[in-house]
Amino acid sequence: MQNTYNKIGHVEILNEYLANLKVLNNNLYNLHFNVIGEHFFTLHKKLDDYYNKAAEMYDAVAERIKMLDQYPITSLTEYEEKSTIKSMRSQDFTTKQVYSVLINDFSFMLAFSKELEEYASGINDHVTSSLMSDNINFFEKELWMLTASNK
Ligand SMILES: [Fe+2]
Q1: Distance from residue 95's CA to the centre of ligand 1 (Å)
Q2: How far is the CA of 44 from the centre of ligand 1 (A)?
């Protein structure tokens, strides 16, 4: 069966998703370095898990773009331009602020993953839709736990 979808348009969305993962990864480092307060040790360690997970997702999406015979964005300037999640300057982050950034950025990534999952399923790109299903699982689970911890 032939792929009937517009591969270029599809890759543009994947690249936009990739850009958001890159900026998210960077923001997670920022929080990891700059978190302050009594929960420092717990959050510092948790953020270590999160930026590793974001880097893993980033790699998988870039490789998916290569499988579609296109180029993943690698320019930092282009990441900034294409990402909806905006990069943050270094500052102190209290526990509340860390939770707020995480919940915001993860909620955005969850919504984007769902959108891309639906789109990819609709054009029979099962590899992308399966990648997105994994990401949806991750973001939904973490958002449940972050929201519970933040009450
Ligand atoms: Fe570290």
Answers
A1: 17
A2: 8
CATH of 7-149, one of 1.20.1260.10, 1.10.287.370, 3.40.50.2300, 2.40.70.10: 1.20.1260.10
**Residue 134 alpha carbon to ligand 1 centre in Å:** 25
Angle, alpha carbons 81-47-71 (nearest 5°): 35
Distance from C-alpha of 17 to C-alpha of 21, rounded to nearest angstrom:
6
Is the Cβ–Cβ distance between 127 and 69 less than 8 Å? Answer: no
pLDDT surpassing 60 at residue 140: yes
The percentage of residues in the chain with a pLDDT greater than 70, rounded to a whole number, is 95
CA of 11 to the centre of ligand 1 (A): 32
Cα separation, 79 vs 23, in Å, equals 7
- How remote is the CA of residue 29 from the centroid of ligand 1, in Å? 8
pTM flag (> 0.90): yes
